[in-house]
Design a protein that fits this description.
mainly alpha
Length: 102
């Protein structure tokens, strides 16, 4: 009555990992949950790594832009106060506007 048609009782599947509850259903279910958690943690770690990598690159670009802007502002002030001559001002401004190599 409770058998599966093969002469075995309920929960008595075929072999070690058969249809039985403990070795078939429960272990496979636990392994499925563990694999799902591992994949989710790996995906979150990858997204965080890529996010940090992107923000570091953006931060470096922003920092360089701010530094160049500050340098141009200081140069403009020095020229406005008469501390440097026009030719020197134009040369330095040209140097600051040209991206650095390397």
């Amino acid at each position: 009555m409770w058998g599966n048609g093969y002469g075995h009782g309920y929960g008595q599947g075929h072999g070690w990992m058969g249809d039985g509850f403990w070795f078939g259903g429960l272990i496979h279910g636990v392994l499925g949950v563990v694999v799902t958690i591992v994949v989710a943690v790996a995906a979150v770690a990858l997204v965080r790594f890529l996010w940090r990598l992107g923000s570091d690159a953006a931060g470096a670009t922003t920092s360089a832009t701010v530094q160049a802007s500050d340098a141009l502002a200081a140069l403009d002030m020095r020229y406005a106060r008469g501390e440097i001559e026009r030719d020197d001002y134009l040369q330095r401004r040209s140097d600051l506007d040209t991206p650095a190599l390397g």
